[in-house]
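Checklist before submission:
- one chain only
- standard amino acids only
- sequence pasted in full

Submission:
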Amino acid sequence: MARWLGWIGLGFLFLGAAAALAVRLAAPAVLLEFNAYADPAVAVLALSAAAALICLAAAAGLRGQAARLQRALAEQAAALETERRRFIQRLDHEIKNPLTAIQIQLDNLQALDADRKPAIAEVRAQADRLAQLTRGLRRLADLEARPLELERVEIGELLDEVAELLQDPERIAFDVQRVPWPIPPIEADRELLLMALRNLLDNALKYSSPATPVQVRARDMAGALVVEVIDTGRGIMPDELPLVTEELYRGSNARDVSGSGLGLAMVQRILARHGGALELRSRAGQGTIVTVQLPYERRPAADKRR
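Returned file contents:
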């Protein structure tokens, strides 16, 4: 709106000047002697200039209001994010101690009452799931608050490290670009990037049949590192694709598999802090392609807290 008002104001000014020139050319003899009140050319030019000034002033005012609104929204978003992290930390503190006590008592009961072992084991499994959830929330809050420890990271070496941490590394087929040139190292926090890639590969293995392989491709494309994780698992429903990176969200066809619903949220936050991006393509019942894109050098604005 402000831009349009600015252009309208300039249009008034140019049209007024053109009209004034036309009046002068049409009646030069009459207008040899004039004053600001009697000369039509001056009157047209003055009115156009006034209209232009009004439009330009309105445009400047709107731009100022937009800038103030943008600053206020950014401050509000930062305050909400800070409060969210504090809430997660308080939640972890309030739940951790009682939950530990419950787990200890369940272990004691299981040792004393053999007849109720299955029921106690089920309760213990749910308590463990709750403990896993609180740990995940704490990790999510911590990784957003901690400063990045940047170093030069070779993606091939990092993928080798990830493979060593997985339960079924033999199911993964790695394809890292070597020719016509090797992939340059990237500037990244090694620990966080390891966490993100491990999470993606864990998901691919977990939601695929044990008999099917998972492909990992790393490429140098358009001045950025691109890593694809490809599986032939159960896939994600189309209407759920935009939601799976939200905290605690789990797809409708994944709820029979253990998990916290925090993994992809962590991956997205880690990539965002590195100036990178996460893209998911999936077909239910056929599989999923997860694409990670990372700049070789971290952009200065990438680590701003939200």
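Reviewer check: The longest helix spans residues 40-112.
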